[in-house]
Amino acid sequence: MTATTPAAPAGPAADGSATLRELLQTTDRRRRRTDVVMRVLVTAAFLLAMLPLVSLTWTVVSRGIGRMNADFLLYSMRGVYGGMDAGGIYHAIVGTLLITLFATLISVPIGLLAAIYLVEYGRGALARLITFLVDVMTGIPSIVAGLFAYALFALIFGPGVRMGLVGSVALSVLMIPVVIRSSEEMLRLVPNELREASLALGVPRWLTIIKVVLRTSVAGLTTGVMLAIARVIGETAPLLLTVGVVDSINTNLFDGRMMTLPVYVYRQYAQGLVPCSADDLACVPDITLQRAWAAALTLFLIVMLLNLVGRLVNRWFAPKAR
Predict the structure, then answer these.
(1) Plot region of 304 (φ>0 → left; ψ -120 to 50 → alpha; else → beta)
(2) Nearest Cα residue to 129 out of 143, 109, 114, 141
(3) End-to-end Cα spacing for the chain
(4) Segment 272-322, tens digit of pLDDT
(5) 75, 95, 143, 226: which could join 237 in a potential S-S bond, CB 3.0 to 4.6 Å?
(6) Which of 115, 107, 102 minimizes the C-alpha distance to 214?
């Protein structure tokens, strides 16, 4: 007994399949036009958004690269006056790095612990209050943060206090909400199944947070901290109020004024052109503007370096998919 293959349907069914195949292979002209229009709009928006960034980069690099050399990076402004073709930003680089580093040491533990509380333990009115205060602090003007830090230390040391520690506290006020927000988002991305599996094995909650949650999100947390540092390292107003200006190198955060790169840029640019006599050939009229643009380029490179480090850390410590 042999099996027979049923014959293919003919008639209206075959015509319907051919029509469906033809419709699937044909491009709808209306959808195609809509797709082209959306592509043009998205590309135009991207180019428009990139225009200020490219223009800013070109302006800073073209005006600052001429003054950038080893002497400019390795010497301070001590003993430099008038239109002398000398002086550098070494004291400003040291001040910027020390003040920002101490602000990071203050902000990261507070911000990270607050984010852990909000994600892992926060319930009820207290969590909502903390979230509301973080939202308010995110939009606080930088000059207000500087006034707060100055008023706080003026109560302890008296009016007129100027030192790097006050600047670090002012920057930490701006940095803490950024760290909390970024860390909170990263911690919420950790799947609950990982927490539940660890708790089901009898691991305490605090150890689950350290070994599982933080380990899984360490790349995102590090990137958030780097972005927070890049956010505050260019602040000028709070440092102008709390740290002041100085022409010499000061590595002590707890004593005396310090110079930072944003304040250095502002101070040099505010001095304007230097009056030079006709017989003084060594005087450079626009030396202050040259120093300002070169210092701005240095600050720009530091921010780019921090962003690059953040991306590298994200790539190295991100959980590998097997």
Answers:
(1) alpha
(2) 114
(3) 53
(4) 888 888 787 778 888 999 999 999 999 999 988 888 887 887 777 766 655
(5) 143
(6) 115
